[in-house]
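Record type: monomer structure entry
Structure origin: computed from sequence
Chain ID: A
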Amino acid sequence: MNRYKEIVEILNNNNKTVSTMESCTGGMVANTITNVEGASLVFRFGAVTYSNEYKIKMGVDKSVIDNYSVYSMETAKEMSKKISDFTNSNYGIGITGKLGVIDKNNMYGLDNMVYISIYDKDNDNYINQTVSIETGDREEAKKQVVTIVGYKLLNELKKQS
């Protein structure tokens, strides 16, 4: 069974919801979720926040970005929690990272490193993973991240079911 189909089914069966705040994946996780029939029952909102300005407007603490960089697990955690809070979702997914592009606005952070955070609001818990992307192809890199997010979220949902 498709991993994301199973995620939607488990969320629906448990009356749970999910929202995303994505940067380097450009909304691909939200797109993958909403490609599943019945996703409208569990998916609340997806934000693509490429710029620091819009991460901050969505609630990410500017001092976290200033202190740790936009490319950090601390920022991913802020993104996952703030989107969960904003939408009152049981789960918030935050993704930030640098996929081989020089970002003149954010010179810090490792190339080809992606920071994933899934916030579980009900248990006030974070499921985090840092991923080193091996491909130079941007679309393939995004697909790798989507696969990892699906795996992490499904494992968490199965543990709680």
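Annotation 1: The two ends are 17 Å apart (CA to CA).
Annotation 2: The mean pLDDT is 91.
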